TrEMBL record:
Residues in Aldehyde dehydrogenase domain copies: 16-472
SUPFAM superfamilies: ALDH-like (SSF53720)
Taxonomic lineage of the native organism: Bacteria, Bacillati, Bacillota, Bacilli, Bacillales
Name by which UniProt lists this protein: Aldehyde dehydrogenase family protein
UniProt keywords, alphabetically: Oxidoreductase
Record family assignment: Belongs to the aldehyde dehydrogenase family.
InterPro entries: Ald_DH/histidinol_DH, Ald_DH_C, Ald_DH_N, Aldehyde_DH_dom, ALDH-related_metabolic_enz
Source taxon at top rank: Bacteria
Amino acid sequence: MATKLLGQKMLLAGEWVDREDKIKVYNPENNQLIDTVPAASKEDMELAIEKAKEGAKIAESLSVKERMDILQGVAKRLQERHEEFARMIALEGSKTIKEARGEVTRTIETIRISAEEARRMTGESINFDQNAGNEDRMGYYFRFPIGIVAAITPFNDPLNLVAHKIGPAIAAGNAIIVKPASETPLSALKLAEAFTEAGLPKKVMTVITGRGRDIGDTLIENKEIRMISFTGGLETGEAIAKKAGLKKVSMELGSNSPAIVLKDADLDHAVSSTVSGSFAAAGQNCLGVQRIYVEKELYSSFKDKFVQQTKELKSGNKLSEYTDMGPLINEKEAKRVEKMVEDALKDGAELLTGGKRNGAFYEPTVLANVPRHAAVAVEEIFGPVVILSAVDSFEEAIEKANDVNYGLQAGIFTTNVNKAMRGARRLQVGGVMINDSSDFRIDAMPFGGVKGSGLGREGVKYAMRDMSEERVVCFKLTDEE
């Protein structure tokens, strides 16, 4: 893709606008400037919210068929421009071209599911006559849109995580204001372009590019915003929750995901699955495997195979078909990961492979014997680092897996269905993947965590529930003709 600067515009209430102040977008692989986007002001955000009030009325008036047609039109455009979107994801973010193609395919599915779920947002009848004296009453409830949804998205899935906000919001009949990550705004703007081409009415959607310090609080605190859907870090999520006021909040705040490998597991499958789960997207994945607990009878064999497969991963040019892992989103993040690993090593951890940084690239890194108090053991690394630990029993693995302030997803590798079921009940997470790593998700399932991993659930159907409300209608019948 040519790196000629085009100077992108942002979508403000259906109008493409520019601003003198710019945010520069860099390719993290080589720190090359690839484009610029407008740096929106507080006044821009205030205007976006004012226009969204009108947009909410327009969105609510769209028929289900109109919503479905728009969403299906977007999916069609994504399919037709699949490689174009994939190259944009790879260029501005950390993903390799192969990973980026997978994200585009998932985004198409997310939008298609949104179109289908639009027809399924229904209510049901209510038996009011279940209480004495109400024999002459009957009724039902239906769901109606909440109004304006604010979406704040991260850099690691710059297309599909945006789609997971926009798709359900439009399907449910809402207006939406999207604030994408400043590191990766270009994919979100391309998706907005597809929505405008598919016939989404003006004022229904804004994709506003700006620095969080300039426009974030205006979006979060405004009383016209009825829901905030945020994906990002725990610290930022807590700050948003304190400022939001009386409105719905849905948050996916990351994790420190465990995988448990029992002695009866398929060794080769467990190794390949957890290597992929640990280092996909350079470990910048909320579902990424961070801790692996292996029963001691299998530990030595697992460790040898895991380290060998990790060493075989190829880092480098993101657009190469032969690259397995790209850089972190910037050198600052790579330095943060580097320090976490160095601190663990000073505390006695063992380095099995990796541990070196080159600019924004950080080698796939495997640690063992990591002290319980080390930051890499209890915090979210969000980088290509994984910890191996031997355990004496399944019970010990469950206890250690739960011993962090996160709980998004977990994986269990076993052929024992009873242990799998016990693990599914006892792991303090939002999802348990049996014979898969924690890094598995389909876009139709409820997705979210417990503890510091967030509030609420994403997944189109479940997001639509949060983006709508129930309204009860009750008829008191009379004998009059």
